[in-house]
Design goal:
mainly alpha; 4 helices; single chain; 0% strand
């Protein structure tokens, strides 16, 4: 005959949840930091290499090469923004999972006096998209750099085709601004496209 296991005590639930929440928060911050840092280092390294290189006499070919490199960095930035959005989604899914466990115990063990110990409930978890979250601020940072890289790519591409100065100076900031707008819009789109999951 199999012996019954003793019921899990409320103290054990609270301790296990606290430990899980702390580990999840730490991991999310680490992953977010790594993703953003990799992009920042990539952009910084390329810019440093450009300024440290002598380009006399080969401007035509180098312009196209630099345009390609800056566009590649913009694509890398787009992937970083996508990563940040997915990390935010993963964090919220973890929070929903933890709150589902809490709801189960609240429903089946009404005598447990732990409700006031938890700030977040299933219906009070922060939304996936928050304009004042660290994830969003990091996405803004990456998007601004993407605007610079895409603007620089536009500049070098037009310079490679010997476009007029007025066209270069109109299209360069315009394309950079569009890149920023697209990146932030894409980040928001990922986190708001499935609104039913927020409930």
């Amino acid at each position: 005959m199999v012996a019954k296991k003793p019921p899990l005590s409320p103290d054990e639930i609270l301790m296990a949840e606290f430990e899980y929440a702390a580990n999840s928060a730490f991991q999310a911050n680490e992953d977010r930091s790594k993703a953003a840092s990799f992009f920042l280092v990539s952009v910084g390294s390329l810019v440093a290499a450009i300024f440290g290189t002598q380009l006399q006499g080969v401007e035509g070919k180098v312009n196209f090469l630099l345009a390609g490199l800056f566009v590649a960095l913009t694509i890398l930035g787009w992937m970083t923004v996508r990563q940040l959005a997915r990390l935010r989604e993963a964090w919220r899914e973890s929070a929903r999972t933890m709150n589902r466990i809490k709801d189960y115990y609240f429903e089946h063990f009404e005598d447990i006096q732990l409700r006031e110990a938890f700030r977040w409930r299933t219906d009070t978890i922060p939304n996936k998209f928050k304009s004042d979250s660290i994830s969003y601020y990091t996405a803004i940072e990456v998007s601004l750099l993407c605007g610079l890289t895409f603007g620089a790519g536009t500049y070098f591409l037009l310079a490679g085709f010997s476009a007029s100065d007025w066209l270069i100076w109109i299209l360069t900031p315009l394309m950079g601004g569009l890149a920023i707008w697209f990146q932030l819009g894409y980040y928001k789109h990922i986190l708001t496209k499935r609104k039913k999951e927020n409930t």
